[in-house]
Amino acid sequence: MKQNLFSALAGAIFGIGLLISGMTDTTRVQGWLDVFGEWDPTLAFVLGGALIPMAIAWRIAARRRTALLGRTIPLQPGGTTTDAPLVIGSTLFGAGWALSGLCPGPALASLGWGGTGGLVFLIAMLAGMVAAPAARTRLDRLAAAP
Amino acid sequence: MFDIAWLWGLLGGLLIGSAAALYLLVNGRIMGASGIVGGLVDGSGRDNWMEALSFLGGLILVPALIAWVFGGAETHLTGNWAVIIISGLLVGLGTRLANGCTSGHGVCGISRLSLRSIVATVFYILAGGLVMVMARHVLGWV
């Protein structure tokens, strides 16, 4: 129960941060990516601001190793190698991110006022996520081929 | 010159980082938006579905409430359906293949100096910049 409560709290703070930072406004994100247009550096301030508390959190985590609600803190998350799915996936994600100006967090946070377009984006994003395990299997098979 | 939006960006960023820190130190989890949703969608996060749903509840409802009370929130999303759908498919597929997005790799990964996350972030920003410039200035799509 406590887990769910703190999870909802984290989601809420994340969402408020995305809203007030301007990251739910696609013109800001596209303005950051459009280096040849009227370049908008806001995203750098957002990322810079977000890294500060999180860098401190990792230092605390390295000492405590256990989260307050009892879980072991994942000090080495995800894979360890920079493999093809990482590079290909990030490239595809970047391309999609540029086209609309939305990434997963802001797409969710702006659902309340994003209208039909925001909802259609979310459904397409979920479909892409459903397709990902099969795409990964293909990539692994290609990589394993002699 | 100085733009007040940068200050809001910094403040919002501090909140985003604090949320990620809370999720790490209290729940013992990585706050990655694509991982939390993706785990629900493909079943890999079945063990913690209530926790993931609670996160999404807070993430969707609280900003919606604030936007409703204060007004003025706009996504300025394109009205081009093909662009919206292709973009959504690419974002969903790409973030799950890469095991992370701007929150998972960008915020949680870079802050612990993960090589994978730094590589991922370099690639999605470079690809994003390239596609943005192509789509806007060469092809005139967005």
Brief overview:
The complex is a heterodimer of chains A (146) and B (142). Chain A is mainly α and 146 residues long.
Q: How would you sum up this structure, described in words?
A:
- Chain A has one domain.
- Chain A has helices at 2-21, 26-33, 42-64, 84-100, 104-109, 115-144.
- In chain A, helix 2 (26-33) packs across helix 4 (84-100).
- The termini of chain A are far apart.
- Chain A is globular and about 45 Å long.
- Chain A is an all-alpha fold and 146 residues long.
- In chain B, helix 5 packs across helix 6 (115-138).
- The mean pLDDT of chain B is 96.
- Chain B has a domain at 77-142.
- Chain B is mainly alpha-helical and 142 residues long.
- Classes of the chains: A mainly alpha (146), B mainly alpha (142).
- At the A-B interface, helix 1, helix 2, helix 3, helix 4 and helix 5 of A face helix 1, helix 2, helix 3, helix 4 and helix 5 of B.
Characteristics:
heterodimer; A: 146 residues; mainly alpha; 6 helices; B: 142 residues; globular
Write the layout of secondary structure elements.
The complex is a heterodimer of chains A (146) and B (142).
Chain A: H1 2-21, H2 26-33, H3 42-64, H4 84-100, H5 104-109, H6 115-144
Chain B: H1 4-27, H2 33-42, H3 49-70, H4 81-97, H5 102-109, H6 115-138
Helix pairs in contact in B: 2-3, 5-6
Beta strand count of chain B: 0
Structural class of chain A: mainly alpha
Multimer state? heterodimer
Number of helices of chain B: 6
Largest β-sheet summary of chain B? none
Largest interface: A-B, 119 and 111 residues
String of helices and strands of chain B: HHHHHH
**Coarse shape of chain B:** globular
Return the structural class of chain B.
mainly alpha
Number of helices of chain A: 6
Range of strand content of chain A: under 5%
* Major sheet summary line of chain A: none
Helix content of chain B: over 70%
The H-and-E topology of chain A, N to C, reads as HHHHHH
> Number of domains in the coordinates of chain A?
1
Content of β-strand of chain B = under 5%
Poorly predicted runs of chain B: none
Beta-strand segment tally of chain A:
0
Mean pLDDT of chain A: 95
